[in-house]
Structures are given as structure tokens and as C-alpha cells.
Amino acid sequence: MRIRPLVKSFQPYKVLEGDYRIWLDKNENPFDLSPEIKEEIFEELKRVPFNRYPHITADPLRERIAEFLGIDKENIIVGNGSDELISLILKLFDGDHIVISSPTFGMYGFFAKFEGINLIDVPLDENFRLQNVEEYAENARALFICSPNNPTGNTQDREKIISVLETGAPVVLDEAYVEFAKGSNVDLISEYDNLIVLRTFSKAFGLAGVRVGYAVGSEEIIDHLHRIKPPFTLDSISMKIAGLMLDHYDLVKRNIDYIIKERERIYRKFKDYAYPSEANFILMKLNAYEFLLEKGIVVRKLGGRLTGHIRVTVGKREENDELIGALKEFMEGRG
């Protein structure tokens, strides 16, 4: 049995497991679906034939998302999480490299390495803003922009995004956290046929356990993505649940407003150490990972350029209260 050397070079993705009280490490929505909505889902699932394959291109959900966004179904592709779509996008275009701007979401580089694509990193500046990525657009398979950016939480200027789009190279704009931000750039797909916008139901919609992502782009791009996408990758259950949550966007919006309010409360408490955020998490220049873990609070420990920083997911008020108290105790101990 001969395993590819490239595969041997990978390490499996791991997360902390254990009996901890508060989990603020994965940017999950702190609100599960209400019992009433779950009952509605269960009633709907009673009518789903489990012996039949789902729609081959998830058209029932594509139509719902199109109606929600006010665009055409042909501009949308749905995947088993955004990760599946990132992998597909890197199979779609020609080019010998991708461009990322670190620190950013690690899966762009993961899939590029697996596809044997060179990676060019044009690091964000000291304020986590995009720099001269346009200089590397020639023969790029894709340029990735994460806005709001994970793990820094900031959005990128619309003018800069347009400047990158003007190169004509494929641009993947990851808006996984956009519902927590002041605005989106998804409308630019009507002007730039080289733009693909990634979205997800995992964050604002509270469906991390359901695994539904989607991409918005030109009809040509979406058509070609469907040509290489394996059939039936989104199951009937996930499709039904995601569609029902669009019916309950009023509840989703209330949860978003709650999270934003709590995010700003935490930021004000630690504004000398925290970076402004338009996501559902906050980056903090506090080396408090182990201290918080001892308190039963799990946050994300960062490395590389962000060594000594933690990324804190915004939880429910009572969880955030405990986080605030523990961080104050940590800072008093440092003094």
C-alpha cells in the first residue's frame, strides 16, 4: 500500500475536547434552535422520503436563497459547508498560484497545498488591511479575501476589493461572518464576473452542525462549478433545515443583534487589548489561553504573527460575564 507523500505531510485537523464549562473557541452561534422551530423541522422531516436521493443540485434551497438575496437561482451553488466550495473553486480555474493575506482562514492554504498549487502570502498590514495583492494577480488561480476576516474580525474596504477585482483574476470573497458586519459586497457580482462570494449557514443562522454553505457568482461560474461538483452532496435533511431558517430570519436577526451588542460590551471592557470586530468574535492581545482553560473557559490560542493573542467567540451574556471576570483577574495578576 503506497500512500502519497503529500498526504503524509498533512496533519489531521484537531480541536480541544474535554469537560469544559464554556466553549468560545469555534465562532459558533451560542443559540441553538428553539424547541418550537425544532418541532417544526421534525414535522417537515416526517414528509421527507429518506429512501430517495436529494435534488441533485439542491434547487429547492437555491431557490429559497435566491429569493432571500433578491437574485437569480442560477447565480447560486450550494455545498456541504463552504469548505467543499473552496475545494471546487480551486479545481475550476487555470493558474499556478493562489494569493492569500495572512493572518486569515487556514483552509485556503490547506486546499491549495492538496491541489499542488503554489501559495503566495501578501500579509495584511499592521491594521490588518489588504496590501498590494493586485501585483500577484497575473496567472493566479484565485485571490482570496476574507471580510470580515478570520481571525482578526475586521472588514476590508470596498474600494480595495474593487481594485483587486479590476485585475480580472478570479476573486473569492469570503463573507462567512457578514451578517455581523455593517454591509456586504455581494452586489458586486452584477458588475464583476470574476467574483465569487462565499456564505454559510454555520454562523449567524446557528447551523454549524448542519453543514450548509453557498457561493454567489456569475451564471457562467456557477454553471461550471456544477459541472465538476459531485452529485447529491447536500442531503435532504440539511437542505430542509436551512430553508426553514430562512423562514425564521426574524429570530436569526434578533440573535445577531444580541451577539453584536455583547461583542461591543466585551470590546469596551478591554478596548486597550482588543481589536474592533465586525464578526461574532474578538481578537485580543492577551496571552490568557492557559489561564482561561484552568477556569473552564475555552478560547482559540493563536500562533505565528499572532502569538500571544487569543480569539474569543461571543457567547451568551452569562458566558461573557464569566469571561470578562476571568480576564480581569488575569490582568490583575499580570500587574
UniProtKB/TrEMBL annotation:
The record's annotation in Pfam families points to:
Aminotran_1_2
Q: Which reaction does it catalyse?
A: L-histidinol phosphate + 2-oxoglutarate = 3-(imidazol-4-yl)-2-oxopropyl phosphate + L-glutamate
Q: Does the keyword Amino-acid biosynthesis apply?
A: yes
EC class (word): transferase
Query: Might you give the EC number(s) for this enzyme?
Result: 2.6.1.9
Q: Which PROSITE patterns match?
A: AA_TRANSFER_CLASS_2
- NCBIfam families according to UniProt: hisC
- Name the UniProt record assigns to this protein: Histidinol-phosphate aminotransferase
